Amino acid sequence: MGSHQAGAVLFTVNLQMLAHFYEQVVGMRVVKTAPDHVVLEKGAFRLTVHQIPEQYAKSIVIASPPVVRESTAIKLSFRVDDISHSRQSAASLGGIVYGTEREWSNEGTTTCDGFDPDGNVFQLFQSTERASNAH
What angle do CA 16, 3, 88 make, to 5 degrees? Predict the structure, then answer.
């Protein structure tokens, strides 16, 4: 595996779906797959998507579309090459990257929030130079 310097663990009842979502939308690569977790990396960041144990998972229901978990204290943030490409991928995989009207720019980056198929809110950012070239 790579030499990650920071990471997060995301617990879910939808292990394969959520791992695939972050692989496609953020451009992460799968570095390990186990029955109860998938490890993805991008640069120095590692995301471990972990299956919630069965005794807890049976009481969890994820609505479709999911209820967006906006009141949580943590939001994962990822650098991507192209937010618009991530937006298209997210829409086809059960999540959302909000539209361009909800993007904002600051200190050389363009940023936009979204949510994954479980309703976890995340943030994507790209260099502003790339964003202005895309329009």
Answer: 40
Q: What angle do CA 61, 78, 111 make, to 5 degrees?
A: 100
Helix (H) or strand (E) holding 75: none
Q: How confident is the model at residue 1 (pLDDT cuts 50, 70, 90)?
A: low
Mean pLDDT, the chain, whole residue set: 90
Q: Extract the tokens encoding 48.
A: 């471990």
Whether 95 and 116 have beta carbons less than 8 Å apart is answered as yes
Give the mean model confidence (pLDDT) for residues 106-112. 95
The reply to whether the predicted model has a pTM over 0.70 is yes
Sketch out the chain's domains with CATH numbers.
Answer: 6-53+68-134 (3.10.180.10)
Rounded CA-CA distance 127/111 in Å is 9
Predicted local confidence at residue 31, as pLDDT: 97
